[in-house]
Amino acid sequence: MYSVLSITTPAAPDISGINIAGIVISIGIGVTVWLVASFVIVGITKRVAAGTTLFKKPHFRWVAPALRALDHERRVQRANTIGSLLNSVVAALVAVITSIYVLQNLDVNIAPLLTSVGILGVAIGFGAQQLIRDFLAGIFITIEDQYGIGDVIETSEVVGTVESMGLRITRVRADDGTIWYLRNGEILRVGNRSQGNYVPPAETAQDEPHPDSATQQKAGE
Fold this sequence. Notes:
Blueprint: H1 20-50, H2 72-105, H3 111-127, H4 129-144, E1 152-155, E2 159-165, E3 169-174, E4 179-183, E5 190-192, H5 201-207, H6 211-220
Antiparallel strand pairs: 1-2, 1-5, 2-3, 3-4
Helix pairs in contact: 1-2
């Protein structure tokens, strides 16, 4: 009896579904969109940091007292923070969309991948609720200009001077020199002593006449 051994050669991978031109075009468009968006964001950031000259013209001088001029350092800090946030969001969106088109041109079924990414995103969202809350609070604090670097603020935890601001943490130096790191999502109430006409309690007490002295003065009369 003779056994015939059949040797089968491995099949060559099917690359007929791969679109090389589509991959190159997708990557090229993604890089171009990211560069243009970064250029626009940098231009807007510089313009915001430099400030507007509209209300400095003679026709608008009458409205100047009604506007609260922002300190240069605070304005630059706000502009840089918002610019950094926009850059991160644009980069993430461009990367995700470009990756989807590249996978499609590689003839990869992305439906299961999108489902897995969606489930993972939901899990991360539930696990990082506090982190997301801190970031959102930091964005609104920056945009609304609730306080800035150099301001004296009062929160439920501490009274001190703001030394640095981020999207997650605000660093405050108290009067005794202690450095406090406050999570933006946990700052439920904040008072800014630098924005209004704050009068220290000691000065208020000195300006008001003491009741005993007023009684003695009436008795002497």
